[in-house]
Known about the structure:
Shape of chain A: rod-shaped
Structural class of chain B: mainly alpha
Helix content of chain B: 55-70%
Strand order of the largest sheet of chain B: 1-2
Strand content of chain B: under 5%
Structural class of chain A: mainly alpha
Helix content of chain A: over 70%
Number of strands of chain B: 2
Largest interface: A-B, 15 and 17 residues
Radius of gyration of chain B: 22 Å
Oligomer: heterodimer
Order of helices and strands of chain B: HEEHHHHHHH
Order of helices and strands of chain A: HH
Number of strands of chain A: 0
Shape of chain B: globular
Amino acid sequence: MHDLLIAAQAAGELxxxxxxxxxxxxxxxxxxxxxxxIGIVVGNAITAMARQPEMAGPVRTTMFLGIAxxxxxxxxxxxxxxxxxx
Amino acid sequence: MLGVFxxxxxxxxxxxxxxxxxxxxxxxxxxxxxxxxxSLLILLIFVGGSRKMKLIPGRFxxxxxxxxxxxxxxxxxxxxxxxxxRFTPFLGSLFxxxxxxxxxxxxxxxxxxxxxxxxxxxxxxxMVYVLYWFLGFKHQGIKYLTGHLFPAGVPLALYILVxxxxxxxxxxxxxxxxxxxxxxNMMAGHILLTALALLTAYTLTNAPIIALGxxxxxxxxTAFELLVGFLQAYIFTLLTAVYIADSLHAEH
Lengths: 86, 252
């Protein structure tokens, strides 16, 4: 009986631990792609602004749009992180 | 003897007790109080400030004018077009409302952004959702939907892939990402600031010299949150303008 209780408790702790690890991996993995993507967006926007400074305004607006769309994926990961943890 | 550092459960940072009318549908807590206060502030500043307009603006009037021009030039005219100034009042109110709500995050002693509760960004996103569907069908008819689902110049076999993706994108991803982007940014900022403040308080009692680290970091993050609050209000308004522009004219 006592052994069974300990085993059940260990299983509960194992579940909690695995949940936390899973949540961590979810957010970490979700941040990889958008990180690279935002780098590409901003890098190319800077190249464009340096080549044609007179177009800096429209390029900046489009850059923010691109960042917003790319970033959305990371934010979905952030929400899933809370869902996976609870 | 060192105490154990525990982070409070996430509910404690975001769920507030009702102040008046407890347990009725009209209950007011910190979140709804802040929303009302910011609406009143915006009304007071902008309606009051534009009561006696002068030809040569004073300091206060030029702040109001440049705010309006920022939305009018930078968002409405740039994204939708020069003939769309009728959308500036809507976009301007949206921008100011989100901006004021976001800035409560860094106002001392209040330090809670109401936009980090899902109801507010979700409702704003739903409003935008209804608006762009309505405008799309009003200006383009059924072509608004077919133009999105069956874009021209795509090989026939690829429609199997393109049409479902576009359907999910226009039905679900657009409003959801609009709401979640604002929510997650403000939520992450609030959690980060709370964690740094708690860490400062904990190290101050146990190892005062180390407390300088999280404290300075907290000051830096507060300045960063000023930027984030502005940027998120700007991006929300910008994306609203992009969706409206997409409803008004077919894809170029």
